[in-house]
Design the sequence.
């Protein structure tokens, strides 16, 4: 099957039309209702898709003949396969999900995405978005070709009772984090639950130390091959990561644990710490789905500091999730009008689901009265202006794969920090020049 | 010599499947061959690099050679089940007087279960915490020391992803071999028995020579299928940890759809086709060298 897919792409070689032009905003002409498509990589029953479905139904009632077909592929590798195949065939739909990755940047350069900065300006909605949410979706040159539909902070959820039993407190510094593990493990619990099947959760760990020491600077240089993991920041980071293996922080089979496995380890009272975004708040406050010993025991702490940090305690991973791109080849008055209607309605409807909104709208009454939820909502206005970005959206794809593969081995204790540095530095040196000219 | 009407009939009935075969099999191979001569990311115009992708593959890509080696180990483990265990059970089944149909149904059952379900099943079987069936059994018989994270341990993961593939289809091959064994003339076996041959001697000198053409065909089918194995390893470990369960097929997939190197991925797919052809050629070569006919 995979062979046939690659072969099918070969036939597209001859079929690629000339470069598409960036469309005018707003597009000229009348609104002609038709079916439009959104290639989405989000949970089917999540608040984003359920909110947009509701809005699309409203819009369809006002515009007979309109229909939004949402093609859902939550599994990210499968989704990317579809997206890349459609992009190669120049068959991108009206909307598609992507991060501001090097691949998406190529789509932008080919004029296949609508300039959403101009789009939001034309609607007069730019000011209604949280600046951090918009900035997360920007490409390296500051341009914006995505619309954020989510907002979340990444925090360390922890079990207060387990910490108390082990006689430990939330770590003040990053060095304190792996040092907690032996004490927690001695009480019979897994110190840190981690999804190792997906590459990105372990990859968050490698981003923490460099962010605290240099903000975005080190990653920006590393991805271009202008900095190395064998530089002082990289050495400090990788040696620190190696200590997670030597201190027994992670499950022996974490590389085979999936997203829900890791979350369940925490909510079912087997693990003491679980690093994940506030999009998992529902799982943390819904006591009915938790083991009895966990109920009422969950709290969170944010990214610990370091001795020489350049970032503030209120600056850490804050992001707006995968963004929604508007395809330029099918951009017409209908798409323009629907996006305007969608964004006008989205803010209120989405915020009332209890999810954190990328827009500044706040419901008069919080949709959830859990103290943990209120604490998270109260955290948002205190956020700093700098935020960490996921490395998997910044590195070139090949180097990213190598880093994720080697990181698993480093965290399992199969390779040393030096071997990790060498493997990843070599991959970046070989592959980065093709993406960052 | 066929009559005119017969020739027309042959033409009419043979053309559609041949056309379908050409479109579905031959054409994609040649398209891949063509694309493998380019460097192409799917977005910008392809750049002709001649044999550059093949030069890189053979001389500058340790991941290719590593994946190839692991693919061969994967095939070997799969064949143990699909040729070895399948032959053993097929042979034993000929002696069974009761429950033959139930056993045949049970061993074929995994072949109709979806790949995703099989991957989930084996992920649970191999689980370390909570202990899966394998680690539980080891504990029960006092072999806790052998318990491990089968899918995370670099020493066991390749075997762990190979076993489900072998287990999944061994029932199909068992049925084929069983059918072959049923065709062995009973009078020959009875004559051998009268001459005092043991059951092993009967198998070796009577049954297996009769079975050999079926066994060779089965070997070719099982080998080429195993060389194309992708889904279970991909779902169980995605080639990890590191590259310790990365096969040529999963490496090709990542090269195409994670790294967006479609030209190089095509070169890898051509290598997979060559690998299958070489494997079939080797099997036939060994068979003919020993003077057997298929």
Sequence:
């Amino acid at each position: 099957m995979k062979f046939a897919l690659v072969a099918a792409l070969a036939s597209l070689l001859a079929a690629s039309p000339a470069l598409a032009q960036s469309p005018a905003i707003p597009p000229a002409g009348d609104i002609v209702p038709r079916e439009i498509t959104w290639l989405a990589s989000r949970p089917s029953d999540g608040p984003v898709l359920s909110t947009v479905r509701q809005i699309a139904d409203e819009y369809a009632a006002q515009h007979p003949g309109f229909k939004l077909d949402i093609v859902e592929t939550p599994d990210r590798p499968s989704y990317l396969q579809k997206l890349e195949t459609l992009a190669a065939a120049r068959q991108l739909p009206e909307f598609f999900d992507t991060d501001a990755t090097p691949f998406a940047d190529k789509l932008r350069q080919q004029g296949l995405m609508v300039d959403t900065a101009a789009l939001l300006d034309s609607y007069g909605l730019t000011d209604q978005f949280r600046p951090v949410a918009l900035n997360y979706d920007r490409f390296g040159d500051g341009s914006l070709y995505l619309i954020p539909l989510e907002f979340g902070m990444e925090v360390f959820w922890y079990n207060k009772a387990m910490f108390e039993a082990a006689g430990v407190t939330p770590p003040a510094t990053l060095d304190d984090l792996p040092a907690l593990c032996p004490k927690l493990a001695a009480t019979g619990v897994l110190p840190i639950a981690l999804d190792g099947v997906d590459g990105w959760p372990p990859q968050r760990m490698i981003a923490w130390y460099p962010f605290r020491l240099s903000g975005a600077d080190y990653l920006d240089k590393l991805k271009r091959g202008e900095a190395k993991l064998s530089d002082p920041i990289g050495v400090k980071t990788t040696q620190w990561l190696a200590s997670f293996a030597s201190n027994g922080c992670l499950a022996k089979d974490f590389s085979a644990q999936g997203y829900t496995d890791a979350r369940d380890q925490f909510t079912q009272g087997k693990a003491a710490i679980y690093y994940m975004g506030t999009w998992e708040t529902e799982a943390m406050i819904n006591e009915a789905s938790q083991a009895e010993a966990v109920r009422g025991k969950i709290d969170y702490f944010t990214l610990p500091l370091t001795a020489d940090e350049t970032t503030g305690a209120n600056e850490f991973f804050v992001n707006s999730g995968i963004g929604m791109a508007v395809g330029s080849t099918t951009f017409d008055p209908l798409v323009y009008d629907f996006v305007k209607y969608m964004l006008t309605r989205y803010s209120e409807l989405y915020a009332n689901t209890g999810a954190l909104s990328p827009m500044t709208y706040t419901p008069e009454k919080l949709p959830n009265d859990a103290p943990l939820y209120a604490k998270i909502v109260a955290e948002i206005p205190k956020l700093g202006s700098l935020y960490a970005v996921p490395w998997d959206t910044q590195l070139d794809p090949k180097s990213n794969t190598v880093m994720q593969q080697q990181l698993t081995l480093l965290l399992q204790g199969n390779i040393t920090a030096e071997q990790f540095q060498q493997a990843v530095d070599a991959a970046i040196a070989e592959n980065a020049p093709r993406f960052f000219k | 010599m066929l009559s005119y009407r017969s020739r027309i009939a042959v033409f009419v009935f043979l053309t559609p499947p041949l056309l379908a075969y050409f479109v579905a099999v031959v054409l994609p191979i040649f398209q891949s061959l063509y694309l493998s001569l380019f460097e192409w990311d799917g977005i910008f115009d392809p750049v002709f690099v001649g044999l550059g992708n093949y030069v890189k593959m053979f001389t500058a890509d340790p991941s290719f050679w590593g994946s190839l080696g692991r693919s061969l180990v994967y095939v070997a483990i799969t064949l143990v089940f699909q040729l070895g265990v399948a032959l053993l059970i097929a042979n034993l089944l000929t002696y069974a007087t009761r429950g033959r149909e139930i056993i045949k149904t049970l061993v074929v059952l995994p072949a109709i279960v979806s790949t995703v379900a099989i991957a989930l099943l084996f992920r649970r079987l191999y689980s370390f915490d909570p202990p899966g069936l394998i680690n539980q059994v080891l504990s029960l018989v006092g072999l806790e020391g052998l318990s491990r994270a089968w899918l995370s341990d670099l020493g066991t993961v390749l075997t762990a992803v190979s076993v489900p593939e072998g287990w999944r289809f061994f029932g199909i091959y068992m049925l084929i071999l069983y059918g072959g064994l049923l065709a062995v003339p009973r009078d020959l076996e009875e004559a051998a028995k009268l001459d005092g041959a043991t059951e092993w001697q009967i198998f070796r000198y009577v049954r297996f020579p009769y079975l050999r053409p079926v066994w060779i065909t089965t070997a070719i089918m099982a080998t080429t299928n195993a060389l194309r194995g992708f889904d279970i390893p991909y779902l169980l470990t995605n080639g990890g940890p590191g590259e310790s369960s990365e096969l040529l097929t999963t490496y090709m997939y990542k090269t195409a759809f994670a790294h967006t190197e479609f030209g190089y991925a095509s070169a890898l797919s051509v290598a997979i086709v060559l690998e299958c052809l070489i494997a079939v050629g080797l099997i036939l070569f060994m068979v003919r060298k020993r003077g057997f006919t298929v």
Q: What stands out?
A: Chain A has two domains: 29-151+320-363, 153-317+389-435. Strands of chain A lie at 35-40, 67-72, 95-98, 152-159, 190-193, 271-277, 298-301, 318-319, 323-326. Confidence is low (pLDDT under 50) at residues 10-20 of chain A. The longest helix of chain A spans residues 333-351.
